[in-house]
Structures are given as C-alpha cells and as structure tokens.
Amino acid sequence: MDRFLKPYLALLLFCTCAPLSTHAENKFNLALQTTLNLKDRIGAIEFSPDGKSIAVGISSEILDKEEECDGEIVFINSRSLKTQSILKTPGSIPISVSFSPNQKFLAVGCMWSDVMTFDLETRTSKQSIKGSMAFVKYIPDSKRLVVSDADKQITIWNNGKIIVSKTIKCNSDWGPCEFALSPDGTMLAIVQSDSTREPICEIEIFDSSTLKTTAKINGISNSVSALAFSADSSLLITGSEEGTIRLWDIRSMKEVRKFFAFNNKKQRCLPTFALSSTGNLLAVSDFSGTSIWDLSSFQFLATLPKSGPFVAISPDGKILLTTTKSDDFDSGYNKIQVWKINRSTSM
Fold it and tell me: What is the CATH number of domain 27-345?
C-alpha cells in the first residue's frame, strides 16, 4: 500500500508548500567577486552566447535630454574582468544590445539614433538600421534581427532589409514596446496596451517569420514591463508594475503560477528579467533591488536590496551581474557588481 501512496503523498506535499518555502537539500548563495567602476552611466548589459564576454552599453548623457552625445560598448572578459575592447557609438545612447548567436555580430539599440550593427570579427560598424529608441534581439539563425522602436513598430530585418513589419498598440510614453523572443526563435511575445483601457493590457504571440498572430493573453489587469520565455519555450513569464510575476502556459494561454517578486507582497516597480539558459534561475530587478528565484521549485533564493535595474545571468548560470552607483554619481548607474552563484544539492 505504501508503494502506491508515496507518489500521491509527494504530490500533496508539493502542492501545499508555499512557493517561498526553503528546501534544505537545495543550497544557494551569492558571493560578491568584485565591483567594476565604469566612467559613464550604464544603459544595457549582455553576456555573449558562450559566456566569455560581457557587452556593456554606456553613455555620458541622461535619457531625458535629446542632445547629441557619444556612447560606447565596452567588452569585458567575464573571467579576468578586464576590458577587452571598446566600440564607439558616436551620437548615440546605447539602451539595448544583442549578440548574434554565432557571435559574429552585435546589434545596438540607441536612444536618439538608428540601430547600429557591428562586425565583431573586424570590430567595425556593419550598417545602420532604421529604428530610434529601439530594443533589439537576434533570432537564433544569426541573420534576422527583431527591432521594436519608438514608432510602435515591430520589424524583422535581414541584412539591412525589412522582411516584415507590424504596427503595435502600445501606450508607452517614452519608447518601444516590450517583447520577448522564444529560445527556439519561432515565437515573439509583445505587450500591447491601449490608453482607453489603461491599465488593462494584452500579450500577443506572433510567428517570428510572418508576424501573424498565433495566440493572445487578454485582460491582464496591470501594466506588463518584462517578458521572457522559459528555456523550452513552453511557458511565458511576465512581470507587472505591481511586482507580480506570472507564468503562462503557451499552449492553453492559461496562468499556471503567480507570485510577488519582492518581499512576497505588492510593490510598485518596473521589473526587468534575466533568465539562465537552463531556465531554472530567474533574476527580477528594479530600481529598488534584485530578487532571485528558482523557477523549477518556485523557491525564493535571495534579495539584493541596493542593486539597480540592469541585470544579467551568464549562460552557465554561474555569474550574476547587477548594477549600482557611486554616491556622487547623479545620473543613472555606473557600477557593475559581479556575483558568483554557488548552488549545491544535498540529499
């Protein structure tokens, strides 16, 4: 009889445990390795696909001044934490960076100018792509680039030419619509909103080749500011301005899990996400701090209260990057904290 009862007992214990509960067999801690001081404000952080390099977009200008300024992409070796090289982005404020999966190219979304692309083998500018104040992301084939810009356009580019473009309903006051690309490159999730229905929004799932709608999540009651797909593309993770994290099943478009990212309670915020390539580690960051979660067990792992809104996790899940600032630095964040992630399981 025990043999038959054990699976049901295990399921009952799993379902009745609160998502914030701590399991003794799953040990997690963060160790601060170092803090990198940058000369200017940070606008974007991204690990290379192999995890060996970190691209950091910086600029001297604050975001709300439409004046020409010079930005840079600083490449940092993730092991030695030394600067490898610098790419100039003249007249531009980098706010988004994306490595092509084959690591041959880098796309840079800029605040007041068009998207810039670089050849990483020659370290030279490749071409400019129309789309100011843009978020960018390469599709896994390393040829196509997704651009979401301030004109509320989602555009797929290939070698400098538009393949397909779509106008998005977006009530963002300052710039582009949030989007997420599935790891397999087939789906594009985009937040859409309407000023007449604020704060109600919807998430639309598109085929990334045609931008034809394949599914929708309607009537989300709080503005969504962060999106990510799970590693196997079966779940969509959303973060709202009340600090709520929701997980949605892609097939049914039904909510399967909900929790508060910060302190297990509602908190006004504008979350951003970093997800490990294995999909089991989620970092939720905001101007008030960073919260770390294990998505495989929905276990809360750690909080970093003084970190800023930019966050990244290395592809192997062993390094976490957060941002902070000097006491005398008035505009944005100018420091990167490098954390070593230690995880172990004991029976």
Answer: 2.130.10.10
